[in-house]
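Follow-up to my post from last week.
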Amino acid sequence: MTTREEGLTQIIEVFKDVLDDQSITLSESTTASDVEDWDSLNHIQLVVAVEKKFKVRFTSKEIQSWANVGEMITCILSK
Amino acid sequence: MISLFEAGQKYALNFQVTEEVYHSFLTAFKDFNPLHTNNEFAKEKGFENKVMHGNILNGFVSYFVGECLATKNIIIHSQQIQFNNPVYLNDKLTFDAKVFEIYSSVNAIEFKFVFKNALQKTVAKGKVQIGFLP
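User reply:
Got it. Predicted complex:
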């Protein structure tokens, strides 16, 4: 991933797959409360899938600090 | 809890699809498809005998996760399994698993596992992801 736009596109694909919902759209300002099925159990699957997709590892401190999808992208780009 | 596990850590177990296991599965889930209950039907389809339900092996995976790990504070998040060869009644199976990935960010661990029969043929393989209860 080289740009934030690419990152967002790939994250949307991950969310569609994990949440089994092809209609999902995300923006950098999207939060868990904006996505119906983004609950605590799915959050684990989403983080695992994002780590696999981007071949990165996060710390629990990092994921707790994310306020929205944009901060997730920032974290991935910092790896 | 996650510190109890290391990448590459291995586990080995033995299972057998006994009459008791087979009949318990039939009683519980009522899948009497002739492939699983009728030797002649299974032979007509090219198998040696009636084929055991693949999901019996998922029960063995459940036993591995629930009973054989270093802590009981465990929950299965997800499981994938691929059935590569048939399992027959009374087959003895070896089960080998290893810690494949550790996701410390979300306290999750992924195991890869493989079941082999007495001929060392892989009958099933897959992955199971677990998390830890508070």
